[in-house]
Amino acid sequence: MGGTLLVVGHATRNATEGVGGSGDVARLFEPADVIADLQGSGLRVEVAEERLRPVDGSERPAIDVLVRARRPGRPTESLHAVGGHHAA
Question: In what order do the strands lie in the sheet with 62-71?
Fold first, then answer.
């Protein structure tokens, strides 16, 4: 069965160069960290990057990590799914 995984959080460098989020770098991560965690999972990483997000009232942006990975499904699962039921 296919699916999409979306991971969004503050980048490690947000603690020193960005604004908001946790100052505890143990709770922050980089795109490469997520990619490493997904190795062998069967998911195909489509996007893995940092994105700058403007924050009202701050001259600095928040620095976020965005990773999108997908596990392809059979075509009939994605094309014929209706109301939670799959075509035979």
Answer: 3-10, 62-71, 44-53
